[in-house]
């Protein structure tokens, strides 16, 4: 075996998954077909859940270094700092239920660099570039892939393999995952260019045949037919020219294109995220329109959900059924994102009927409750995993906010500062010593901290899983230690 887990794809999800695996004690090996990281300007930010997950691993400062630039870029390109639903930029961060829980504005290529450095600091040089997975077989002992590179083909094996190889995932196809969903309604073509002829284009906006979008150094179209026959082929300057001609009636020659990008709003999701020893995460498991900027929040949270579970399973120390909770928890979250992106696609179709509907949704977004409804839908903060035991506290099953804790006289810490080890964390008030007592047998897999939570008066103790989900929580008064023991048995290696 060449590793405990082979991760296919060194995009953001593969890099974070490999780091999480290493943190949890597994040896990952990452196979990436590209010689260099992609410079395509894709995501311009990550949602609050993913940002909190990275802060828990000590990457907060690195993210914050890009914030100012990100705010400026977003204001320049969208004319607003607000979030959007179907390009209606009205979702107001200040109106949201938990306004302190915010995402990070960072371009995807910068995020990938931070994640690559984080992985190297934990695991050394485990990314093999110019290694394209072209074949895969699994049996009851492990998975073997055939990898093609400049030096020819070779085989590599591991007990488990995760496809983080993007929307057109080879792993998904080779392993036989079903990928049901809906066909595209629109195709976006985008290039980076300063071609002088662009000045002749009309103002950005709807036309009779599509929509034109502009930002400094960038031009893009949306069309509702004219899908390319082979979506795997890269967008060319000529295809962009023809699209501009169809949408605006203006023939603009584009001598050179940089960063050509073509994507659709096809929405598909793997029927399960695991077949035997092969798993999927990120875009390999779900594709949808980038409307609302949810792809990375979703994919990075797949990675943090899976890393510790798979590491424990590969080491043979996972509680029964732990790995199955990955699909059980993450599939519904992905399905919800597909659902709202389909609604956004419907609201983005051309024609007077949809335009009327957009006007009404836009007016509704002026109502604070509606604004919060849409914000909650897109930021994922309301995500609540269902656990196989009673959830007696409102935080159980939800991502733990970055609570402030008093850990000693004049000493305060935050949850994220206590989670760098990647182990589960049990926090309890000094008045609840019984919590630490019952957790004694699990001490080998758990950090226990005596502290008082200062920013919630309904919380005296919490068990936080390695992925930041609250596994159990208790208010002031006698703690429900029976359920705590069930939670510890459910998530941690047998005591
Ligand atoms: C225009 C655009 C804007 C977007 N904006 C946002 C946004 O604002 N916010 C947001 O959250 N999301 C956004 N997204 C979505 C986001 O970019 C994706 O969700 C994200 O890239 C998914 O990461 P990933 O690691 O799963 O896959 P990818 O980033 O696609 O990475 C997959 C990796 O696998 C490699 N690979 C593929 N096949 C093989 C193989 N056979 N062998 C070895 N390696 C292989 C690829 O080279 C690649 O490096 C946007 C997407 C687009 C297109």
TrEMBL record:
| Cofactor annotation | FAD
**Residues in coiled coil:** none
| GO molecular function list | FAD binding; oxidoreductase activity, acting on paired donors, with incorporation or reduction of molecular oxygen, NAD(P)H as one donor, and incorporation of one atom of oxygen
**Pfam families documented for this protein:** FAD_binding_3 (PF01494), Rng_hyd_C (PF21274)
What's the domain of life for this entry? Bacteria
Q: Which UniProt keywords apply?
A: FAD, Flavoprotein
Stored InterPro entries:
FAD-bd, FAD/NAD-bd_sf, RIFMO-like
Span of domain FAD-binding: 2-340
Record protein name field: 2-polyprenyl-6-methoxyphenol hydroxylase-like FAD-dependent oxidoreductase
- Organism name: Nonomuraea jabiensis
